[in-house]
Design a protein that fits this description.
Length: 110
């Protein structure tokens, strides 16, 4: 499914923080997990994912570490910080309130 780019742009941070609050991952792993959980609705491109990860890192919400993967290649693993966890929880609460309000308008019969 193709989503409005602006809608995705405004949501990617909370999606990434949620995924990384569960376990550390490297970029391609994040892409795969988002795709799997969304039943392939989210097909993040590298040009979307890495700038978003970089912004979260700059804000202090993530840390990163290069490690040797099982295939012998270096991979950059991302993990969430305590500050990032706090932002993730607040973002999830905000998202729930927002979607509840949108549903109330869209699903009402007048």
């Amino acid at each position: 499914m193709d989503f409005d780019r602006e809608l995705l742009k405004g949501s990617i941070a909370i999606l990434l923080l949620k995924l990384l609050s569960e376990r550390e991952m490297y970029g391609y792993e994040i892409i795969q997990e988002a795709s799997r959980r969304s039943e392939k609705s989210f097909q993040f491109k590298e040009g979307t994912l890495y700038p978003a990860l970089h912004q979260l890192y700059k804000r202090g919400y993530l840390r990163s570490e290069w490690r040797l993967g099982t295939n012998g290649r270096q991979r950059k693993y991302y993990s969430i910080t305590a500050k990032g966890r706090k932002v993730a929880r607040a973002g999830q609460r905000g998202w729930q309130l927002f979607t509840k309000a949108v549903d109330a308008v869209l699903l009402s019969n007048g």
